[in-house]
Design goal:
- GO terms for molecular function: alpha-glucuronidase activity; xylan alpha-1,2-glucuronosidase activity.
- It comes from Kriegella aquimaris.
- This protein is 37% helix and 11% strand.
- The chain has helices spanning 17-26, 37-54, 80-86, 118-133, 185-196, 216-229, 244-247, 259-275, 301-312, 334-342, 403-411, 423-428, 458-469, 475-486, 491-512, 543-547, 571-578, 588-591, 606-630, 637-669, and strands spanning 29-32, 59-61, 70-74, 98-105, 108-115, 142-145, 151-155, 201-203, 235-239, 281-284, 318-322, 353-358, 382-387, 438-442, 553-554, 594-595.
- The strands form three sheets. The chain has an eight-stranded parallel β-barrel. Strands 2-1-3-5-4-6 form a six-stranded mixed beta sheet. The chain has a two-stranded antiparallel sheet with strand order 15-16.
- Helix 9 (301-312) links the parallel strand 10 (281-284) and strand 11.
- Helix 15 (491-512) packs antiparallel against helix 19 (606-630) and helix 19 runs antiparallel to helix 20 (637-669).
- Bound molecules: 4-O-methyl-beta-D-glucopyranuronic acid (GCW).
């Protein structure tokens, strides 16, 4: 396969002789329970992995016998004597969980992979392959794992013409023209990659939706994809355009309280389930950025979401209703609007509705404080929406390891039930005893040979999946796993590249949006810097709205003397954010408008400190380049070169950000650059 195509499923050969020997002894004779297409998919994956890692294939047996050194079967298929040996409480596994354990059975070591359900076996096999890719000994292995979140989902923003909104890795994978007959191998490999990290849901189409996806001509094609994804435990969701009853249904209205509209959705849902019996449900962007919605008819988000929920309920489907709303008619702080619109509806949504909320209150910035809604809707299943595609983080050109960002958000404390009420607990449902939980990531995947454009952007897909499975995982563990599975087992390489990845997120914050600055991107494409006044009509689409720089100072006052957005957080937090002395400096200008000579904690003035942060970002990219060049010997020249070239662009653009922002802000601060900050060239 072309470079990077295999993602983290390269299954590189085991080189350490002792470990190779151990594995060869372990995998002498494998009993793999026969069964449906899901078990077959799992068995195929194990075969591929073992063949590549061990160079030779052991016997796979369909009949259990005393020679078996590996037993892979559901609990219901294990003999009671073996179960006894295993001594494991299967209740904790649920449907998706698995256990991998080596036991002494009839005087032989037997490695067991077991689960309650087929899907647990699939995840268990990927878990086993992961252990081998991590070069873990299996001699005394005892690993049990189960996901902490129900819906672990990718949101593709793919249009039917195969362009991808905010996509930087080629065109959409979905070849609508050739579907349903032509099944691209990529669909299968995509499903494998997702299953390997536990992703179990995908929404195929852009949230800025085209109603045509709900017509039979397309449903047939979606059905074909569903068939490919099913053995890998992946359910399909579709984006539902709220005005679809008008556009494809011939009705005059899409009013959710209109009986004809309700009937239309009931009929449509039934039709979809005829094609796809395990259809997941709808993902809806309504009354946001010009998309139609219930408010067009004077109805509320609850009216809209519940109307669709009722249609889906009989079939077990869900509505994922997005909370990313802000309006040109609302002149209050944009950061406050979603909370204002949604929090009063807490407890009013039907049971199969999840409200999907972006990690921050503005829009996928390099850094934002967590969205205050996460601490304010205890009666509603809140689903996290992260952006894996790097709309505001240098597209697929800049190396930025996003699990650092995800972790920061998930570890944030909402204080909604006192200290320790983290966002992770809200998402995992443990804080408010939620039965339905979810996490979505806006995909960064396209037709590029390596799927994601930047080879390191693969780590963001990988890391998202791992954190959706377990929101308490830390980013360092994820980086470690990914490097080993993707690049190399060499400890020097791993140490160096891990530290490069872990600093990369702070670097991008520093050279783009330090000290809580946000949305100072060039208008429309959001790639380079553009803090100056833009041509756009809506004030909140104008970067000056966000930084509010003037001769006196810079920043957005969101304290009670300003927009009072801090009041949307728990009182403990609001208090911390309201005082610039206690407000974490990474959020300083998010919450405060401060004079240019305001003293930062390190003693620098705000102007000097800001300039030094921009410089630090540039320097961090320089260090990344040194690290990468020093690691050349551990990878192939091609692997080295592609990232080397990308890092050169990143460095040039980090300087561009620094120079553009500092020159612009300097027109207000009217101060010289401090020592240590390079002058624009
Ligand atoms: O981040 C903004 C993007 C839009 C996107 C929107 C959303 C799909 O600039 O391209 O539209 O958010 O999340 O709905």
């Amino acid at each position: 396969s072309p470079p990077g195509y295999d993602l983290w499923l390269g299954y590189s050969e085991i080189e350490e002789p002792a470990l190779l020997k151990e594995y060869q002894n372990t995998f002498k004779s494998i009993y793999f329970q026969n069964g449906n297409e899901m078990l077959h998919a799992a068995e195929r994956e194990l075969t591929t992995g073992i063949k590549k890692m061990l160079r030779k294939l052991p016997d796979f047996e369909k009949l259990r016998n005393s020679e078996n050194t590996v037993v892979i079967a559901k609990k219901s298929n294990l003999e009671s004597s073996l179960l006894k040996r295993l001594a494991f409480d299967f209740d904790q596994l649920g449907a998706d969980g698995f256990v991998i354990k080596t036991v002494l059975f009839e005087r032989k070591q037997v490695l067991i992979v077991t689960a309650n359900e087929d899907i647990g076996i699939l995840y268990g096999v990927f878990g086993l392959l992961n252990l081998m890719q991590q070069r873990e000994s299996l001699k005394h292995i005892m690993l049990s794992d189960a996901p902490k979140v129900n819906i672990r989902m990718l949101n593709h923003w793919d249009n039917l013409d195969r362009t991808v909104e905010r996509g930087y890795a080629g065109f959409s994978l979905w070849n609508w023209q050739k579907l349903p007959e032509y099944i691209d191998q990529r669909y299968i490999d995509y499903a494998r990659a997702n299953a390997s990290i536990g992703i179990n849901a995908v929404s195929l189409t852009n949230v800025n939706a085209n109603a045509l996806i709900l017509t039979p001509a397309y449903l047939e094609k979606v059905q074909a994809l569903a068939k490919v994804f099913r053995p890998y435990g992946i359910k399909i969701y579709l984006t539902a355009r709220f005005s679809a009853p008008i556009e494809i249904g011939g009705l005059e209205t899409a009013d959710p309280l209109d009986l004809n509209v309700q009937n239309w959705w009931h009929g449509k849902v039934k039709e979809i389930y005829d094609y796809i019996p395990d259809f997941g449900g709808f993902l809806v962007k309504a009354n946001s950025e010009g998309q139609p919605g219930p408010q067009n008819y004077g109805r509320s988000h609850v009216d809209g979401a519940n109307m669709m929920a009722m249609a889906l309920e009989p079939f077990g489907g869900n509505v994922i209703w997005r909370a990313f709303v802000y309006s040109e008619h609302d002149t209050s702080d944009r950061a406050k609007q979603a909370y204002t619109q949604f929090v009063p509806f807490d407890g009013k949504f039907r049971d199969n509705v999840l409200v999907q909320t972006k990690n921050g209150a503005i829009d996928f910035q390099p850094r934002e404080p967590f969205h205050p809604m996460f601490g304010a809707m205890p009666k509603t299943p809140l689903m996290m929406e992260f952006q894996i595609t790097q709309e505001y983080l240098g597209f697929s050109t800049h190396l930025v390891f996003l699990p650092k960002l995800f972790e920061e958000v998930l570890h944030s404390d909402t204080y909604s039930k006192g200290k320790g009420s983290t966002v992770a607990k809200v998402i995992a449902g443990s804080l408010n005893q939620k039965k339905l939980t979810g996490m979505a990531g806006v995909a960064n995947i396209g037709t590029d040979l390596n799927w994601t454009g930047h080879p390191f952007a693969q780590a963001n897909w990988y890391g998202f999946g791992r954190m959706a499975w377990d929101p308490y995982l830390d980013s360092e563990t994820i980086a470690n796993e990914w490097i080993k599975a993707t690049y190399s087992q060499n400890p020097n390489f791993i140490t160096a590249i891990k530290s490069m990845m872990l600093t990369s997120r702070e670097a991008v914050v520093n050279y783009m949006n330090p000290l809580g600055l946000h949305h100072i991107f060039d208008t429309g494409h959001h790639y380079g810097p553009g803090p100056w006044v833009s041509e756009l009509s809506r004030p909140e689409w104008n970067p000056v709205y966000y930084h509010k720089a003037d001769e006196k100072g810079i920043g957005f006052n969101r304290t009670p003397s300003g927009s009072d957005a801090t009041a949307q957080y728990a009182p403990e937090l609001a208090k911390i954010f309201n005082d610039p002395k206690t407000c974490p400096e990474e959020y300083l200008l998010w919450f405060h408008h401060l004079p240019w000579d305001y003293k930062l904690k390190n003693g620098h003035t705000l102007w000097d400190g800001l300039a030094l942060k921009y410089q630090q970002g540039v320097d961090q990219v320089k260090t990344m380049i040194v690290t990468w060049d020093d690691s050349k010997q551990y990878i192939t020249p091609e692997q080295h070169n592609e990232v080397r070239m990308l890092l050169q662009i990143q460095l040039r653009e980090a300087k561009w950000w620094r120079d553009a922002c500092l020159l612009y802000f300097q027109t207000f601060s009217k101060q010289a650059l401090p020592e240590g900050v390079n002058k624009p060239t």
